[in-house]
Design goal:
globular, alpha+beta, about 45% helix, 3 helices
Amino acid sequence: MEINNELKELDVQWQLNNNKLVRSFKFKDFEVTFNFMKKIAILSERLHHHPTWINTYNKLEITLWTHDANGLTDLDFKMAKKIDLLFNDFNKS
């Protein structure tokens, strides 16, 4: 897996930080933020891959990395792509 190639396939908001994928989101209010988090939680359960996240009111920061590999794997990029799709769909509604 070539990390730079994989990174190019993600939304430009994803950043590489200490060999982890990090993206921040900002929403209208806490309820909207939490509804987005619920969608990610359902996705996480399906993929058996759970993000580290920090939520403060209308802000959400997501960090993806594979603990067992102590770094990034294909699953992290798959999860990031799916989060991007969720966010795009979420903003349409």
